[in-house]
């Protein structure tokens, strides 16, 4: 009877356990929810820090790519100083947890890689990220950090590389419709043994060409002419004329090997009335142009234009180039190579008065519309070229506005300065697609 009485006496305790469990679960769920808010905040801040590190590393690598240092490695120390400053400045333009980073948050900018493929590793760290609900456990702030490595990839092999050594080709966009023979364009030597731009291995024959250009007044046989067409209308001569240093063959527009189509919109307003060739100069042909050993996965052949054009090729080239570089005939209109940078190269570019980004005028910029990439073809053997020709590298030049029209014997020539060289004579395999006109690809390689 007593046992029955005890059981009956517990009737008033029914639901107490459920109530206690409910209260406990409410506390646990509330704590988990509070912790989740802190965790989400932490991960969001971590993502923002990663974006800051990524953008800073890419900006630093872009400086190295456009400085000429991947073509002439003696320029790397000076380029690295500029790249470090730019990487820090770009990191400071990013917010983490609602606050802009400072230079103190960029804990390190480290350079590595090889001479032609330098890397930039940027680490950012925020040590006082406040917590909210985690304070109940005594944690008032946490540290968040991120790291990113970007590479400036130049496919050129190092000097002395054994013949047959291969590398990965590149395929930049916005390449101009000019094909240069593989002969030193700064000199007038037109017979063997004239110096090539790229050796048979794909190495850069003379890294000292960076910073030089044509017209040129130095060397044993300086080229006193600027950039102009070897045959403005190649249809009136047969065979195609022998190559001459610094003179280009025009690219066949809309041809299938590979396609070099007329660029579509957007185009600069000054290009109204331009023909297809001029639009390719003033605009951006989105079709990538590969270099190296021709194959199904790396189509590196292209055709010289042998269709009728007329006698206006050089004048059309100058007019389209003026449009491209925003040159309206006045000093300071176009971007220029910053003359205050010492030594020069490595290069920095000063935005001109007509630069489309008005806030950049008078300031150093990472990229410029005055930078043009020209394919180099396997036509340095002093024989008449025949279609199709193979692209074995690229020359990146700066189109100078100082005197676009040079005197006779050939008018309408363009003075240019060599910024970069990218050789890929023996490059094989799937090319690295360009992220713009530069033949030196910039890409994140970590994380």
Query: What is the C-alpha radius of gyration, as a whole number of Å?
Result: 30 Å
Helix content: 10-25%
- Proportion of residues in extended strands: 15-25%
Order of helices and strands: HHHEEEEEEEEEEHEHEEEEEEEE
Number of domains: 2
Number of helices: 5
Number of strands: 19
Task: Give a quick account of the main beta sheet: strands, pairing sense, barrel closure.
Answer: 8 strands, mixed
The chain-level mean pLDDT equals: 85
Label the overall shape: elongated
As residue ranges, the low-confidence spans are none
Judged by helices, strands and strand pairing, the structural class is alpha+beta
Oligomer: single chain
Distance between the termini: 75 Å
Molecular structure report:
By secondary structure, this protein is α+β, with helices and mostly antiparallel strands. The protein has helices spanning 2-9, 16-66, 76-91, 276-282, 313-324; strands spanning 95-96, 99-100, 106-113, 118-130, 141-153, 170-171, 178-181, 213-214, 228-229, 247-250, 301-302, 336-337, 349-350, 364-365, 371-377, 389-399, 416-423, 432-433, 441-446. Helix 2 runs antiparallel to helix 3 (76-91) and helix 4 (276-282) packs parallel to helix 5 (313-324).
Per-chain topology:
Elements lengths: L1 H8 L6 H51 L9 H16 L3 E2 L2 E2 L5 E8 L4 E13 L10 E13 L16 E2 L6 E4 L31 E2 L13 E2 L17 E4 L25 H7 L18 E2 L10 H12 L11 E2 L11 E2 L13 E2 L5 E7 L11 E11 L16 E8 L8 E2 L7 E6 L1
Parallel strand pairs: 6-18, 7-15, 9-10
Antiparallel strand pairs: 1-2, 3-4, 4-5, 5-19, 7-10, 8-17, 11-16, 12-13, 13-14, 15-16, 16-17
Helix pairs in contact: 2-3, 4-5
């Amino acid at each position: 009877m007593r046992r029955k009485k005890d059981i009956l006496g517990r009737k008033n305790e029914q639901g107490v356990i459920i109530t206690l469990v409910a209260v406990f679960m409410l506390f646990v769920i509330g704590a988990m929810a509070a912790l989740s808010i802190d965790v989400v905040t932490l991960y969001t801040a971590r993502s923002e820090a990663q974006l800051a590190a990524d953008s800073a590393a890419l900006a630093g690598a872009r400086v190295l790519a456009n400085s000429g240092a991947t073509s002439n490695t003696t320029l790397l120390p000076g380029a690295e100083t500029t790249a470090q400053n730019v990487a820090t400045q770009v990191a400071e333009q990013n917010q983490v947890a609602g606050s802009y980073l400072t230079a103190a948050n960029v804990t390190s900018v480290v350079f590595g890689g090889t001479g032609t493929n330098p890397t930039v590793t940027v680490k950012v760290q925020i040590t006082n990220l406040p917590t909210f609900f985690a304070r109940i456990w005594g944690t008032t702030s946490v540290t968040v950090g991120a790291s990113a490595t970007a590479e400036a990839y130049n496919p050129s092999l190092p000097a002395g590389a054994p013949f047959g050594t291969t590398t990965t080709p590149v395929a930049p966009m916005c390449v101009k419709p000019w094909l240069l023979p593989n002969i030193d364009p700064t000199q007038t030597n037109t017979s063997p043994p004239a110096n090539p731009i790229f050796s048979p291995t794909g190495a850069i024959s003379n890294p000292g060409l960076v910073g030089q250009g044509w017209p040129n007044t130095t060397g044993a046989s300086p080229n006193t002419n600027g950039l102009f067409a070897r045959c403005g209308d190649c249809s009136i001569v047969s065979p195609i004329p022998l190559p001459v240093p610094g003179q280009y063959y025009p690219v066949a527009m809309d041809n299938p090997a590979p396609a070099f189509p007329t660029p579509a919109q957007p185009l600069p307003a000054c290009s109204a009335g331009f023909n297809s060739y001029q639009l390719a100069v003033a605009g951006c042909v989105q079709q990538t142009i590969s270099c190296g050993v021709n194959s199904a996965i790396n189509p590196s052949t292209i055709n010289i234009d042998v269709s009728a054009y007329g006698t206006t090729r050089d004048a059309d080239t100058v007019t389209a180039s003026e449009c491209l570089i925003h040159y309206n005939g006045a000093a300071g209109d176009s971007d220029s190579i910053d003359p205050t940078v010492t030594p020069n190269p490595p290069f920095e570019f000063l935005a001109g008065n007509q630069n489309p980004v008005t806030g950049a005028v008078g300031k150093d910029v990472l990229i410029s519309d005055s930078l043009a990439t020209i394919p180099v073809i396997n036509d340095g053997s002093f024989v008449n070229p025949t279609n199709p020709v193979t692209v074995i590298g690229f020359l990146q030049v700066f189109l100078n506005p100082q005197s676009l029209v040079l005197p006779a014997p050939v008018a309408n020539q363009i003075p240019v300065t060599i910024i970069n060289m990218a050789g890929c004579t023996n490059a094989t395999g799937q090319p690295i697609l360009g992220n713009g006109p530069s033949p030196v690809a910039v890409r994140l390689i970590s994380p």
